[in-house]
Amino acid sequence: MNTKTNKYLPRAAALTAALLLAGCAVEWQNKQAAQQVAQQSQPAGSVYLGWRVFQDKCAGCHGPAANGTAQAPDLLPRVRAMGERQFVSLVLQRYDLTQPATQVRSGAAAGDAQVEVAMQRQEAPLVMPAWQGEPRVNAHIVDLYAYLSARADGRQGTERPAR
User: Of 34, 64, 140, 162, which sits most exposed with the smallest number of CB within 10 A?
Assistant: First the structure.
């Protein structure tokens, strides 16, 4: 090697090292931003507290993993199809579980439909009770949604969530 090349070698090595370190910093910052975006897209409640409320108030009918039983349907596809506001409204009010989440009736229309079914002596549809009078459900409704949406989108398995 000639003297001229040797003179620039340390500078080239320093420049290469600086570029590599800058690339790592950008990658680290991008991972951090991606994690923040992922956290912001998740519901605001606690998955663990939602799991506790679900086990206490909902698992008896819907099963311990929300996959449904002979008494009540699988909640996971229903929760996947609705947002937090609709979930809160449906849980706090009585509704007909035989209909898809997008076609749920409430109030007088749902009551009229139940009366019609009874008058025609048909098999009564599954109707979930209203939970608006239950203090624990009211206090943790956002947590309940956080748990069920985590189950519905695969972020939470059937096991007990971490605190």
Answer: 162
Element (H, E) at 127: strand 127-128
Structure confidence by residue, pLDDT tens digits, 40-92: 556 689 999 999 999 999 999 999 999 999 888 899 999 999 999 999 888 88
Query: pLDDT tens digit string along 115-159?
Result: 665 566 555 555 677 788 888 888 999 999 999 999 999 999 999
Number of residues written out for the chain: 163
**Integer angstrom CA distances of residue 35 from 31, 38, 79:** 6, 5, 23
Query: Closest Cα partner for 141 from 130, 153, 152?
Result: 130
What lies within 8 Å, CB to CB, of 163 at 6+ separation is 48
What are the phi and psi torsion angles at 8 (to 5°)?
-90, -15
Whether the model pTM is above 0.90: no
